[in-house]
Amino acid sequence: MAKLMSESLKQKLAPKLGVSAIVEREGWGGVSSEKCGRLVQAAIEVAEETMAQQQPRPRRY
Question: Which of 52, 49, 33, 44 is nearest to 9 (CA)?
């Protein structure tokens, strides 16, 4: 299976989604599919914010 999300990003997002305790106790396999979906949503939001910050501003003439 391909690794699509870095472990560091997952660890950063876990507390925000309230799954840190589950991950510590059971690993990522113990996280419900609903919570995993929210994790993916949060990761997409982080990526979009990062991309928006990196885009050059249009020139004004």
Answer: 44
